[in-house]
Amino acid sequence: SLADGKPVSLSPLESQPHSPRYTASSQRERESLEVRMREVEEENRVLRKQLSLAQSRSPSHHRGNHSKTYSMEEGTGDSESLRAGIVAGNSSECGQQPAVEKCETIHVAIVCAGYNASRDVVTLVKSVLFHRRNPLHFHLIADSIAKQILATLFQTWMVPAVRIDFYDADELKSEVSWIPNKHYSGIYGLMKLVLTKTLPSNLERVIVLDTDITFATDIAELWAVFHKFKGQQVLGLVENQSDWYLGNLWKNHRPWPALGRGYNTGVILLLLDKLRKMKWEQMWRLTAERELMSMLSTSLADQDIFNAVIKQNPFLVYQLPCFWNVQLSDHTRSEQCYRDVSDLKVIHWNSPKKLRVKNKHVEFFRNLYLTFLEYDGNLLRRELFGCPSEADINSENLQKQLSELDEDDLCYEFRRERFTVHRTHLYFLHYEYEPASDNTDVTLVAQLSMDRLQMLEAICKHWEGPISLALYLSDAEAQQFLRYAQGSEVLMSRHNVGYHIVYKEGQFYPVNLLRNVAMKHISTPYMFLSDIDFLPMYGLYEYLRKSVIQLDLANTKKALIVPAFETLRYRLSFPKSKAELLSMLDMGTLFTFRYHVWTKGHAPTNFAKWRTATTPYRVEWEADFEPYVVVRKDCPEYDRRFVGFGWNKVAHIMELDAQEYEFTVLPNAYMIHMPHAPSFDITKFRSNKQYRICLKTLKEEFQQDMSRHYGFAALKYLTAENNS
Known about the structure:
Distance between the termini: 82 Å
Largest sheet: 9 strands, mixed
Oligomer: single chain
Helix content: 25-40%
């Protein structure tokens, strides 16, 4: 307390002036202590002034050794002055430098490619958003995969005062493909070298981050460091915290040239305008060409080339305090960067082992990382008060739609769900699909929540074709799913399954939104609209592909019906043929689906006819019909007004009929519903009268919409409903 100039608490003496212990001797001791305290405060003030003067006069300060930089910039003076609204500095003139303006936009560039890196980016962005108080502009250099994933994610995330721009990483490959690189990041690990060319020419400065970074402070503090650059300093970097560039890790270890320990490029401050004037592009290319003649390839991607340039031109670097890039690699010296949790600002998981890296405090770092990994991203949709946001058409349309709803309507929550924008992360796991040459491929489409995860392995064993799944999960559940999938040999052996996470929001299960998400992201011309509780018969995938050709689905509006059955047994010897299934039906081991509670749902399939059918046969639509069908990918979407339990499939089949789809039952296809506990939504439907009233209201409104849209032909739906 004496050292940082704050008053020392004298409460034990002050609070009891009349106690027996409060003697003349105590009074003298107190006065003596106060005098000494004032002396220490004055000595500290003079010492701080001398330090500031010494720092401002020393031309080598920014390039001084690492420990000096840390001791000058990590202490309370730095953080206190930042909080006081000025940029903490290395000279007395910094008191006049403005801090980051309240609404100043902070620019961040990230190179991201592939499915796994897209997941990492989300955690990094969460940590930045959690602490930020300024508008942010992310510049994402992404391949086509990452762009599809992240564009959808940010579009559905709708975070205020955040702008996203994408730059095609694939177009930049030719700029760096001539450089052999052994690093696991591949060609994308070299793309930070070309940011001066890639980013807009009017962008003056940018913070560049690796995807394996976690922020523990407001990124504005790092942005403020740009004010400290002097002379020809154009790169802000933290010293490398391993011995890699010292060349003593193993016998005959020969790293690229570097200044001392070299610098780590996981966090970079780039003064783009000055770099362009210095002809950075020419500078790094000439250096790389020269060094590659002897080194043959890079080992640490762009970092090797940055360091080789700095070795030749040390004046380019402003050395950041090491807490701006605490590197958790093997053999790291990062523990010297912090004495307390409050010292940490940026954590860098720069080991291929990531969370399994060896470090004395790795549990603490891992918990900090997991906090953001599992943090509810919806909570980060916070307004920046006082900062005008750019007009967002999607957000404005949403607000307009919501404002037109009557909040006093007893069905308001149902109606509101139709317009809720759910944050969506497409292709959460690696996905590969090779299109079939005969153009007959079929994707199984389904949706699920956490309580149905156990069905995934069984479905994968029954269906070898592509699958598109929408999973309704919280952020924490998404990580549980990831661990489950990565621990499953069955799921990890399948790359043709697209897992699309739709994050939880609101009180209803948005079943039809989930179906639409899964339908929208299929790669095949046809899809089998199933549910997660059904196991398709063995061989159904190949049978459907043949049926697609046989029934000319490409040129006709048909919906091919796969008859549905159910078992009440958790352990079932799955029938391997239609004959075996019929035998089980006769024995009472299997039943036609929902025959005992909702006969109308599948009665039009005509199971009696199916028993002896050997060729496909046509059936007519009837009220409440909800079969499972194979259709072309251009079929209409499901109606989002139906959430939870009730009428979600019925409405879709009705719309197919209105669009004159022909319903054709496949004679040698079947699927079996496996037993499970009742869902939360069916429980609400059964127990909540208002739920049933609202469902009836939505149903009537849907039928009226059908009449308006399809005219006279749709009157039969009203008539059929009245008769049923």
